[in-house]
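$ ./design --mode recover --in tokens.txt
reading tokens...
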């Protein structure tokens, strides 16, 4: 019997997902790196975007593969069907939404991170120390105390969610993790009407309901109206509601407006409220001395959310949440069953259990690209790019104001310019339709990617410059094309 078993075991050929031919894999890997660097080097020479042909879509939507294909063929498939139809955000003329352009070295860092493939949930290994270091650097960049807590997350949305979870739990006044959201008085959060949708989604997912987010009107500069805010809090208290948090904008998505963070901090202090700052892209100005005054007051926040994949140029995804009080952060998320017990010695030892500070248990090594990139360029270089983009936005504003066929639709406090093609004697409705069409044609002709937004009933071409590849000539070109397309549409 035993002999039989031994014989079978000897005939078992175990499988692995590693290549049989490491040299061939190495060759392919070198080819991929060469191709991608070539792709990045010449990005500006290609159209920024092109529509996907139906055939390409069909080529991508294949049946679930049950049998193996040569990886070389799969790569060819990628090169033919995926690579030629990008989103466009690595292109110098991409200014849609709020994006980041990525960098070659950060791309390579992602390769290294995937190669090592650590699980960043916790434990004593070097990658976790890299993340801890990156979080420390983030605190310093944001002018936050070293004693604060932090976590790298997928982006601004998750950073807001983590921070608002802590805010809710701390301010509820009872053990909300145990009891759930069953208070007699409704918890109320306050933010301006310009606040990003991710804040509302967090409030909803936290079980508070959208009615718990009071959207305060803005001033003509798109900043939260402090008087209206104070009145709203007073009114809610009088009605038996329980204010718990104010969310300040450091760079609102539509216009780049900054709320008066010092005033918000003061109200929070007087009213005993949590002060959260959504600085998804705008908080990045903290690293540039000539712009840091915009986030004055942010240092008083109980929590800050910001992205590294927007104005800090990292490839997706990486954002950061910072929480002033480490204990409060820990208490909101920690839950350690036996199988996750942190030890005193060995791999499971150490302080670095990031899974205690957010919703994710298994986590990727997104810290590496940040660690390597900050070392590669130094913080001052990133600050110079931020300044450069703001100067480019001011340049574009001047160009828009100087042109009789363009109309500026919002102030330009930072890096976002909202304007439209304009011609006298045209109804607002028609202008809206024309400007919407201009944006689509800019995309379809592969020229540039601005996106649109509506500013007081007017459809705006919105150019948000968070792109280290943009040059002024790119802005000149898009202005020229906007006027050209505008005239065509009028004619
Ligand atoms: C982009 C953005 C977010 C959301 O961040 P993601 O990284 O896209 O999840 C939140 N708030 C503001 C102000 C933003 O610009």
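writing sequence...
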């Amino acid at each position: 019997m035993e002999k039989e078993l031994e014989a079978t075991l000897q005939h078992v050929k175990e499988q692995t997902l590693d290549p049989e031919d490491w040299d061939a894999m190495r060759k392919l890997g070198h080819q991929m790196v060469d191709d991608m660097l070539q792709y990045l080097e010449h990005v500006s020479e290609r159209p920024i975007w092109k529509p996907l042909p139906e055939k390409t879509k069909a080529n991508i939507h294949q049946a679930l593969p049950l049998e193996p294909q040569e990886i070389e063929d799969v790569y060819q498939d990628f090169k033919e069907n995926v690579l030629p139809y990008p989103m466009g955000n690595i292109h110098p003329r991409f200014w849609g939404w709020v994006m980041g352009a990525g960098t070659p070295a950060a791309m390579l860092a992602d390769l290294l991170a995937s190669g090592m493939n650590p699980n960043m949930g916790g434990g004593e290994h070097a990658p976790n120390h890299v993340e801890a270091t990156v979080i420390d650097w983030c605190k310093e960049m944001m002018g936050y105390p070293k004693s604060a807590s932090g976590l790298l997350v997928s982006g601004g949305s998750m950073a807001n969610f983590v921070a608002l979870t802590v805010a809710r739990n701390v301010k509820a006044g009872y053990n909300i993790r145990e009891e759930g959201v069953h208070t007699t008085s409704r918890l109320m959060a306050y933010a301006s009407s310009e606040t990003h949708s991710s804040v509302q989604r967090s409030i909803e997912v936290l079980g508070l309901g959208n009615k718990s987010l009071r959207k305060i009107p803005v001033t003509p500069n798109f900043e939260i109206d402090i008087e209206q805010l104070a009145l709203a809090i007073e009114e809610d208290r009088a009605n038996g509601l329980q204010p718990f948090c104010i969310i300040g904008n450091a760079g609102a998505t539509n216009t780049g407006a900054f709320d008066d963070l010092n005033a918000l901090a003061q109200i929070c202090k007087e009213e005993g409220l949590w002060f959260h700052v959504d600085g998804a892209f705008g908080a990045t100005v903290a690293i540039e001395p000539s712009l840091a005054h915009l986030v004055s007051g942010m240092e008083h926040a109980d929590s800050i959310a910001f992205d590294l994949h927007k104005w800090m140029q990292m490839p997706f995804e990486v954002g950061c949440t910072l929480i002033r009080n480490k204990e409060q952060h820990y208490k909101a998320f920690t839950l350690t069953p036996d199988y996750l017990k942190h030890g005193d010695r060995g791999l499971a030892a150490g302080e670095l259990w990031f899974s205690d500070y957010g919703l994710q248990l298994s986590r990727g090594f997104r810290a590496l690209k940040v660690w390597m990139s900050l070392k590669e360029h130094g913080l001052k270089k990133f600050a110079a790019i931020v300044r450069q983009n703001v100067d480019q936005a001011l340049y574009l504003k001047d160009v828009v104001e100087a042109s009789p066929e363009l109309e500026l639709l919002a102030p330009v406090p930072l890096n976002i310019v909202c304007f439209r093609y304009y011609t006298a004697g045209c109804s607002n409705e028609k202008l809206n339709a024309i400007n919407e069409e201009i944006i689509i044609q800019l995309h379809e002709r592969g020229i540039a990617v601005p996106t649109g937004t509506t500013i007081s009933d007017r459809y705006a071409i919105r150019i948000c410059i968070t792109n280290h590849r943009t040059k002024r000539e790119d802005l000149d070109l898009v202005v020229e094309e906007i006027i050209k397309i505008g005239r065509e549409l009028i004619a």
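exit 0
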